[in-house]
Structures are given as structure tokens and as C-alpha cells.
Amino acid sequence: MTLQPPQYSIRQWLAFGWRSFLASKTISILFSSLFCLIGGILYWLLLNVDAALVIIPFISGFFLVAPLLIIGFQQAAALIQQEKKPRFSDLIKIKGENNQGIWFLVFILCLCYFIWITDALVIYGLYFGVEPIPLNESFFTDPELRDSIISYLFHSGLVGIVMAIIGFSLGVFAIPLIIHQQIGFVNAVTVGVKKVFSHKWLMLKWAATLVSIMAFTLIIALPLLVVVLPILGYASYAVYAQMIEELDITKSV
What we know:
The chain has helices at about 10-25, 25-50, 50-60, 60-70, 70-80, 90, 100-130, 140, 145-180, 185-200, 200-220, 225-245. The chain has one domain (about 10-250). Helix 2 runs antiparallel to helix 3 and helix 2 packs across helix 12. It has twelve helices and no strands. The longest helix has about 40 residues, at about 145-180. The two termini are about 35 Å apart. The model has no long low-confidence stretch (mean pLDDT about 80). The radius of gyration is 20 Å and the shape is globular.
């Protein structure tokens, strides 16, 4: 008798995220609202200095630090999986004694983020100098400016893609491994990266799903961000639970 390989489903991960959100929507919305408020303030500040072009790498860089923002949702999701009721304190406090690796991972992901932002600012300076370039009708009426903007976005985007791949590969499994299994940083990253590359097409689809949902929310339905963030945070736990711990996420919540 041959064993069937496990079947992983992005739809199941998102369904788990939705059910978990419904089970803890009050604390989830409150927690995600804190990050949305910080992001909104930064967005407003950049707009007020006519730095609209810089907003794009700042927002895109969110995908680098997003794994850090879902630490709380990871902990709450584990409680929900165990049919327990999470509290707000479960979202803001990192539990366990052997979680020092989280802070080193925080440092690495933040470093990747700042490398991206720095490179984006350098590329911006090469194209536009120190003058702020607002996004207005000039984009449509000035062909030279339009070509420069498109080229700037393309080259800064290439740097961003590389940084995002590094951040995703490091964080998607390493963070929950450190939180839930209390293993060291090196072991968590080693196991996590191996898992990513052993299921690279599935992980590519998952990353594309995250980017698509977040991009749609940021561009089309910004107020829904306080709901989307918790759902994706809980879904990220489902990825770990199904692929690492081999738990049945379809019968929980």
C-alpha cells in the first residue's frame, strides 16, 4: 500500500483564517487597527511632502515585515485550533521562554526592509534628484517624466522582489517554528527555508495570493484592511499547522 502525499490547499488556509477571524473578530480588528493607524500616519506624512512615488516602495515593503506583524495572530490561531478563546494579551505578548530567535529574525527582516527603502531612495535620486515628484496630470502630459517614473518603478521593483523573496522564505515557517516549537533561530530558518523550496510552486502561489489580496485591499478597499490582516495572519498559521505539524485545519474553530 502506497502512501498518498499530503494535499495542501490555499483555499483551506484562507477558510481557516476566515473562521478564526469570526471567532475572535473584536480583538482581531482592534489589534490590526493599531498597525493600520501607524501606516495611515506614515502615508499622510509622505503625501504632505509630495513624496507620492516613495509611498510605493514603503507600502510594498510591508510584505517584508508582515511576518512580524502576524506573530500575535499566530499565537491566537494556535489557541483557536485548540478550541480555546484567545484574549487581546495573546496578540501582543510573545509567549515561551526560548523566543530570542524571534528578535534576531525581526532584525534581519527589518534590515531587508531598510535596504529596499534605501535602494529605492537612491534610485529615486538618480532619476529625479532631491525634488519631490507629485503624481498628477504631468504623468500623462510629460512623456519624459512618465518614462522616468516607469523606469524608476521597474528598477526599484526588481530590488523589492529580491528582498521580498528573502523575507518570505525566512519568515513564513521560521516564525511559527520558534513560537510554537520553541526551537532556535538557526534550526527554525534551516527547516523553514527547506520547506519553502521543497514546495516552491505551492509557496509561490501562496505568496502571489497574499500579494494579490493585499494589493486589491490597499488599492480598492482600504477600509477592509483591518479585516484582511487578521484573516491572512490566521491563514499563515494554517500553512504552518498543515505543512509542519500535519494538523487537520478543516475541523477546527
